[in-house]
Amino acid sequence: MRHRLKDVAERAGVSVKTVSNVVNGYVHVRPNTRARVEEALAELNYRPNLSARHLRKGRTGVIALAVPELDIPYVAELARHVVTAAAAYGWTVLIDQAGGRREQERVVACGITDLLIDGLVVSPSALTAEDLAGLDGTPVVLLGERVEHGPADRVVIDNVAAAREITDHLIKLGRRRIAAIGPQRTDEGTSARLRLAGYADALRAAGLDYDETLVAPASAWHRADGAAAMRSLLTSGVRPDAVFCFNDTLALGALRALHEAGLRVPGDVAVVGFDDIEDGRFSIPTLSTVAPDKERIAHLAVELLAIRLDGDRAAPARALSAPYRLELRESTRTP
Amino acid sequence: MRHRLKDVAERAGVSVKTVSNVVNGYVHVRPNTRARVEEALAELNYRPNLSARHLRKGRTGVIALAVPELDIPYVAELARHVVTAAAAYGWTVLIDQAGGRREQERVVACGITDLLIDGLVVSPSALTAEDLAGLDGTPVVLLGERVEHGPADRVVIDNVAAAREITDHLIKLGRRRIAAIGPQRTDEGTSARLRLAGYADALRAAGLDYDETLVAPASAWHRADGAAAMRSLLTSGVRPDAVFCFNDTLALGALRALHEAGLRVPGDVAVVGFDDIEDGRFSIPTLSTVAPDKERIAHLAVELLAIRLDGDRAAPARALSAPYRLELRESTRTP
């Protein structure tokens, strides 16, 4: 016999709504109540029927999140926030790691609808607007700047302004030879292009030259790439006194390379990143960075999906902007 | 019109098998060939039909991976390997983050079958054997030691032996006051219990006392928990000369707390972790650790799922063991 929420609620002596809150993982349930409900769920061996919950609306209650690589801390943190935000709508989130390969992202974007997913949130790395054209009405929300003029709703942050501000922070410290690590070929990363533009803006506004030899490309944005780029800057003899890394993992790699070269941070070289991942709050030294409001990004993405599901699927695509702030820590703190 | 693999193969001048390899993301395709196939896929706007590919076997070609928390680097790295291993079977992996909540894990384990998932890989944190009893024949493979005597296939590593070896490494360095960070209440973590047993074994074998005051519990295993546990050890006045942290993120937090206390690593306190996450290869100092063969764990898990799918679903559950090795780095390297 398959028990229903009502049976669980009766046994636990609480409302059906409370049982539903526990099952959906909402945090605002008192510990005592939660324990009582969990006991009742276990005693009755309750098995929720995902389909039934949403079938009245002709839905499955499941959305998918497609990400390029899961072991990028920023992506993993964002994924956690999307799961939390979706829970408020009673949605289960299934995550697909596309590996940054355009073909695999197309497989997900187009193929996943076969699984009766209600909607899709995509953190795209290589997807183009044309790829998304074949989606046949399954709502899609894009995270980030890629596919700027595509047909889908999207949540963005102002990468140019954020990059300008963090570079300006380095200038205000008195640094004049500010390197940049992270630019990519223009067909690879829109975020990279926008962050480079913000970096150049800040230099120009301060009357500093944009020096090609201080700009180190990085086709991937892992720690190893940041360490390699920093080493190549140091061996080239350009002697930066600060470096803006286009994400935090690049910056953590750069910190390591500077340590190996016997240089002090921030004494010899100040270092900043972008993303505010947990790692940078515990690194030695801790890392100054741009902190996008990840919780807000996730919330807006899920909200856009909900609006699209309940509203006009043919309405023009919307772009919502999420805020960011600078987090200034030891890597730019002069005593 | 919906094009098929055959049409793509004709246009690209390759075999259908090669197109299939590209679409499934296999790595052993020559770059030139891959580029030609990708061009043909784009020109024909090819949309794979996930269902059709597997329907002959009555399958969807999709497996799910349920994990407690995605922003634990070890979990994220393992997830990446599972996605890669599954691609060799033509499977798409959807990942569900259960948030370490038992109820949510039950929802996934029992509810996911409504979505016509072929099988499920679970990295369980709170799931019990009874929870899995209701799975009705959907093959499940468990990662790790939790649910030791459950009804499901599982992949394990020898946590006791690994913990003994890394503790023994500290003893061989001449350390005598070796702290442990990470024990949990017995109903929380089996890995914690086994690693504590290995730690105690090593002390006993070396004739060292097991000193309760050197053992700092941590109910969660994030950097902040490791930093807090290390601080409480330091302020309690027990003065360890080494510390075994039950995972790498705890150890990275401990490194930070030692740095803030003005202590040198490994000069004053040697530090080891467990998991070999990427972070520990770039931290200052780099981190000595136990490196489970994550690629092998993922491969075995997918293989067990495939065997179960094609074979006798009622056969007794199997447990396969994956190897590990010690990675010795700066945090235990005395000059």
TrEMBL record, chains A, B:
Top-level taxon in the UniProt lineage: Bacteria
Alphabetical list of Pfam families matching this protein: LacI (PF00356), Peripla_BP_3 (PF13377)
GO MF assignments: DNA-binding transcription factor activity; transcription cis-regulatory region binding
Keywords tagged on the record: DNA-binding, Transcription, Transcription regulation
Protein's recorded name: Transcriptional regulator, LacI family
Record carries keyword Acetylation: no
Domain HTH lacI-type: 4-57
